[in-house]
Amino acid sequence: MTKDEALKIVNDNYAAANDSFLFYLHERDSFRADRFNTLCIAVETLAGSRCEMLTEIITRCYQNILKEFIYHFNPNDSSQIRDFPKHYTHYLEKFDCALARYYIGDNKHNEKER
Questions:
Q1: Helix (H) or strand (E) holding 34
Q2: How far is 57 from 10, CA to CA, in rounded Å?
Q3: Is the model's pLDDT at 107 over the cut of 80?
Q4: d(CA 63, CA 3)
Q5: What is the distance between the alpha carbons of residues 49 and 54, in angstroms, rounded to a whole number?
Q6: DSSP code for 28
Q7: What is the pTM of this model?
Q8: DSSP string covering 48-91
């Protein structure tokens, strides 16, 4: 994945647009593991970027994912995610790892492409 593709994926998720993970999660109440994995790869692809705005966008994407998970478990909220993974903590850990790679600049996915 190129940095331009990664930027588009992150921006689409930030806006919950264009068939992104957050589009499905927020707008369609559907957990799409394939879109989640693509978002994680995009974050890792952008590792080492020193752009405050990009860091804020990625952080807000993660916050929105966490909020949707919380809403899912709130019995007083109408949000119920279809296909919610039984082992959702696995996905949270995966995003945590992607964030860690982003912050420290460990871009393992681009290393494989070289």
A1: helix 33-45
A2: 8
A3: no
A4: 22
A5: 8
A6: S
A7: 0.88
A8: T---HHHHHHHHHHHHHHHHHHHHHH-TTS----BT--TTHHHH
Q: Please check whether residue 12 is in contact with residue 67, taking contact to mean a CB–CB distance below 8 angstroms.
A: no
Q: What is the pLDDT of residues 34-63, one digit of tens each?
A: 999 999 999 999 998 889 999 999 999 999
Tokens 């992607």 — which residue? 98
Token pair recorded at residue 65? 């994912």
Tokens of 12: 């689409």
Instruction: Name residue, tokens 């921006």.
Output: 11
**Six-digit token string for 95:** 């995003």
Closest CA to 43 of 109, 99, 86, 113: 99
Euclidean distance between CA atoms 110 and 108, whole angstroms: 6
d(CA 72, CA 52): 30
